[in-house]
């Protein structure tokens, strides 16, 4: 229960911190920390306009997307506390509930019949598909390391004793940061600030959404960031008591937000045809983690 | 700590496989030199001044500073373009290098040897094969030299894996030989750059039996 | 004598490299020929003795050294005639003979060395000196050939070193740590 509250709490500030980091890095004062939340609230107050060519799919798409992210958040544990939903193999559930949301956002983009949105949807599907093995190999190797298959058991039994498990944790954090960037269509893969439909990925998919629906999609994006931040924090919290774990959690979330802001400030977007190889490189890195785990367990074949 | 450094070493190989620019290769080579210094330093059982100076000379001064500077000079002098121009797409390079690492691990796993440090062995063999793959798959001559240097790094790690102390004289000789061969390769690269229009392997196909 | 031979061979190579006079050049070549022959005869009389810790006059080394010395004389003579008939400039002639003498001296040292890593070092030196000989004509084809020769040899010599490392690994299993061919006390 605590974990979902913490994730919701940190998601309120997450986008604000990213924006503030970007403004400071580019020498501006920037909007307040709460500005993205205020934008979302403004959107929630507005009505929604639906195109006449769209069907029911387009209407339910954003809602399903948002609820899938929310459900995925429920799986994440926090330190000694389980998530609301916790069972053996819940990381598979986590990955595919997110995939379900993504599927609905893709078909709702296709539903509008706009060629730009179809293109964006195809790219988003491709990149998510490439990011999937990275995530599964990563979590799967940690499941192998600890011998458990639910998020809570994996994180609570993951002892960061020797230097090799610290390395694995660091590598896992790196891979997860990059997966979060891909899933949220952020800088090295996609540029949220771009103004040309041809180069957009995620933004072009939601061109037709407005008002309440757009607010839902934006909120889901912030939640996703906080969710990945929570997973990264869990790698380092392990079995710590709440009085240590809580500040550490908030600190890691803050660090993650600042990292995302810095990456967006100092990196240029990759060329579209370089994206798959970059994402596949993540799979290679998580494969290295897998091999490292095999090394630790001395389970080589 | 050694394991951390060695894993970073392998990641540098993956990074190099998708790098677009030649300057990235040079930087990764310099990074590998620094990593090798860290690894060797941690492997030292007792610190002797002479030994330390030799290692410092071999890794930091030579591998991390002198050779990258020399390569940078070569790139500038011959006006070599920034792109790496591989024969295969980077995507396939990445897959192949991952396969190389996997196969090396399977190979190392089948060897039962108490004298052989497995992680060192894996890193050295995969660096070696990556270097060979680089030589085979890149079009520019300077990337061939970089592949050679990468093989050289792999051999360095292998000599740590085997853990047999060579006499100091031999170490010094190996270092000088590598230095001389890099220098000579560089000099000939300069000549090739002067004589041929582009510094590509495709230019070097005139030699045949008469 | 081995030390004297190596040092004087390298000194002769250096002198030839610095010298531009045709007469002094020829005299130095003759001196090297005599030195090579004298060293071969000397090593025959010191069969199975170890000098300078890393050099042993063993049977195989002696056999190869004698073959090399027999070939050296006609090679020097042929080089002299070749250079003379092709109107080489003094500088290219100097480089040619210096590299030739350097090559022969390194091959000699490689034959006699008793430690496998020392052989490795001298083999690498033969690569470097032979590349100078290949590049003698300094045209496009020579450049191409030299590049290929140097590159392939540099990589192959690295693989030889890997072989040496594996050899030392398997020697550790045999309880030995010594990579030399024959221990002094075994003689």
Q: What's the arrangement of secondary structure elements?
A:
The complex is a heterotrimer of chains A (301), B (210) and C (187).
Chain A: H1 2-25, H2 35-45, H3 56-75, H4 90-111, H5 115-146, H6 151-157, H7 163-183, H8 202-205, H9 211-237, H10 242-266, H11 275-297
Helix pairs in contact in A: 1-9, 1-10, 2-9, 3-4, 3-9, 4-5, 5-6, 5-7, 5-11, 7-9, 7-11, 9-10
Chain B: H1 2-17, H2 22-43, H3 49-77, H4 90-110, H5 118-137, H6 141-162, H7 168-195
Chain C: H1 2-18, H2 22-45, E1 50-51, E2 55-56, H3 59-85, H4 90-112, H5 116-134, H6 140-173
Antiparallel strand pairs in C: 1-2
Give structural notes.
The complex is a heterotrimer of chains A (301), B (210) and C (187). Chain A is mainly alpha-helical and 301 residues long. Chain A has one domain. Chain A has eleven helices and no strands. Chain B has one domain. Chain C has 187 residues and is mostly helical. In chain C, strands 1-2 form a two-stranded antiparallel sheet. In chain C, helix 1 packs antiparallel against helix 2, helix 1 runs antiparallel to helix 4 and helix 2 runs antiparallel to helix 3. The radius of gyration of chain C is 18 Å and the shape is flat. Chain C starts with a helix and ends in a 14-residue tail after the last helix. The model of chain C has no long low-confidence stretch (mean pLDDT 86). Chains in contact: A-B, B-C.
Number of helical elements of chain B? 7
CA-to-CA gap between the ends of chain B?
A: 58 Å
What's the total number of strands of chain A?
0
Helix content of chain A: over 70%
The greatest inter-chain interface is formed by:
B-C, 35 and 35 residues
Output the radius of gyration of chain A.
19 Å
Oligomer: heterotrimer
Question: Main sheet of chain B?
Answer: none
Order of helices and strands of chain A: HHHHHHHHHHH
Instruction: Find the count of extended strands of chain B (DSSP E, 2+ residues).
Output: 0
SS-based class of chain B: mainly alpha
Name the overall outline of chain A.
Answer: globular
The mean pLDDT of chain B is 83
- By DSSP (H or I, 4+ residues per run), the number of helices of chain A equals 11
Low-confidence stretches of chain B: none
- The gyration radius over C-alpha positions of chain B equals 18 Å
Mind summarizing the main beta sheet of chain A? none
